[in-house]
Design a protein that fits this description.
The protein is mostly helical. It has 11 helices and no strands. The protein has one domain.
Length: 249
């Protein structure tokens, strides 16, 4: 754990020195999140849509874009190779690299959600479920980020390779927000990212009118959790197959 923490401190220092990456990871998603607080989104209905858009923005910019840029840059500069050849384990190196943008997503999501609740005088139906949605998004998008980073040659190349995932996440957001909360089905869950987005909606809007018992929460959250778990496992297996510690020859 101490090795992972040390790597995360190093990664945070490197990230702060990169003005472009720091602005993409912090300034841009916070500005977009604040804009959605004061302007009603074009899709969805109510504050649930606002919170979903805020978190998806964080997943796109802070985690996926900056995470891919960082992994590609560290590989290109042979930093990953040096860290991997040290006493640090592969898990420590990977968590230390992606842990900073992942932690930023969680912290900024908490801040934006709190600001949204304060401005409108409303609170989420379940803070726990909302947190589960954020973590589900971080884990699944983080796994996909490693896959994309495996095929990204440099930080500049990340502007191209991250686009398909960004497009899918945006499409999943629009599709999910335009559907009633209690009308979600497996075809919709097959779209990557939809499971985490649905969990965020459940966290803010609460279960459908069928009831508000714990069993209802579990029943409605289970498909989204299952879909997110499948996506994460597939992405992890792909990353383990294709991820490289040094530039391809």
């Amino acid at each position: 754990m101490s090795t992972t923490a040390a790597l995360m401190r190093t990664e945070l220092t490197l990230l702060r020195r990169d003005t472009t990456a720091w602005g993409t990871a912090v300034a841009l998603p916070l500005l977009l999140g604040a804009a959605w607080v004061v302007n009603e989104p074009l899709i969805g209905d109510g504050l649930g849509a606002v919170v979903v858009l805020q978190v998806v923005g964080l997943l796109i910019f802070t985690l996926h874009t900056v995470g891919t840029m960082s992994l590609a840059s560290r590989r290109e500069q042979l930093v990953l190779k040096r860290w991997r050849s040290s006493q640090a384990s592969a898990t420590s190196v990977l968590i230390g690299t992606i842990g900073v943008p992942a932690g930023l997503v969680v912290a900024q999501a908490a801040a934006l959600t709190a600001i949204t609740a304060l401005v409108y005088g409303q609170t989420p139906a379940s803070v726990t479920m909302l947190g589960v949605g954020v973590l589900a998004g971080v884990v699944s998008v983080g796994a996909v980020t490693f896959v994309v980073a495996a095929f990204t040659r440099s930080a500049e190349h990340a502007m191209i390779t991250t686009f398909p995932v960004i497009a899918v996440l945006m499409g999943a957001t629009m599709w999910t927000l335009m559907r009633p909360l209690d009308a979600f089905d497996w075809p919709a869950l097959a779209v990557p990212g939809s499971g985490a987005i649905q969990l965020l909606r459940l966290g803010w809007e609460g279960p459908s009118p069928a009831g508000d018992s714990f069993a209802t929460w579990v029943t409605q959250a289970a498909p989204s959790l299952g879909a997110t778990a499948v996506l994460t496992l597939l992405a992890t297996a792909t990353a383990l197959r294709w991820f490289r510690w040094e530039p391809r020859g």
